Amino acid sequence: MRMRRQSVVALVVVVLFVAVFGALVVLEQRDRPDKAAEGRGDSIAVRADSHRLQEAPDGAPVFVEFLDFECEGCRAAYPYVEQLRKDYAGKVEFVIRYMPMPGHFNAMNAAVAVEAAARQGKLEPMYQRMYETQAEWGEQQVSKAALFREFAADLGLDMAQYDADVDSQEVADRVRKDFNDAIALGAQGTPSFFVGGKPIAVTQASDLDRAITAALDKAPLS
């Protein structure tokens, strides 16, 4: 019951932040979306190289979150998404994609740090670390790249490789591709959720549960 009460609060905050940041994406977008991707709909909600936090059998529904590690709404939704992962373990595939908002000073720094960690097999612990520490570094107008490097060292990463990845054009392009796909799909802020390639409008705590349940009902039997 306590988890459900927390979930309601989290989802209310999510809705508020989506509303606040929706216009920001349109007005401050720095990178134009891939025009070739537009019109392909749910075919770009998940790509072959998209990061899976949790896998499921072929044909299972896919839950996708476009997120910004500096977004307080994403941080509020984080424990709820983690609970969904437990509730639907082995039944639903959970995917995260980057959508660093232009108005957040360290959003891109955080995204490339997580991507660099992912390239060394440490996606999930770095993803978790970002949200667990967001209150320490979020909403600041100075670079926190050095702090994120400390997180990487704590995780035991090869730091020479981490530094090279963080500074690489390839990693930056990887993050921007996710962002551009989000825009092409019509996402207007973070967090933005998709289930089965369809956007989910979150107005109450049960919306994501309901979308997942509906997708499971339609999923082919394994």
Description:
By secondary structure, this protein is α+β, with helices and mostly antiparallel strands. The model is unreliable at 5-10 and 12-41 (pLDDT under 50). It has a five-stranded mixed β-sheet. The two termini are 32 Å apart. Helix 3 crosses helix 7 and helix 3 crosses helix 8. Helix content is 52%, strand content 10%. It has nine helices and five strands. It has helices at residues 2-28, 72-87, 107-118, 123-132, 134-137, 145-154, 159-166, 169-184, 206-218; strands spanning 51-54, 62-67, 93-98, 192-195, 198-200.
In short:
The protein contains nine helices and five strands.
From N to C, what is the helix and strand string? HEEHEHHHHHHEEH
What radius of gyration results from the CA coordinates? 17 Å
- Which strands sit side by side, in order, in the main sheet? 1-3-2-4-5
* Helix run count: 9
Q: How much helix is in the residues?
A: 40-55%
Report the uncertain regions. 5-10, 12-41
- What structural category characterises the helix and strand content? alpha+beta
In round numbers, the mean pLDDT is 85
Largest pleated sheet: 5 strands, mixed
Strand content: 5-15%
Assign an overall shape: globular
List keywords for this structure.
5 strands; 222 residues; alpha+beta; 9 helices; globular
Helix-strand layout with pairing:
Blueprint: H1 2-28, E1 51-54, E2 62-67, H2 72-87, E3 93-98, H3 107-118, H4 123-132, H5 134-137, H6 145-154, H7 159-166, H8 169-184, E4 192-195, E5 198-200, H9 206-218
Parallel strand pairs: 2-3
Antiparallel strand pairs: 1-3, 2-4, 4-5
Helix pairs in contact: 1-2, 3-4, 3-6, 3-7, 3-8
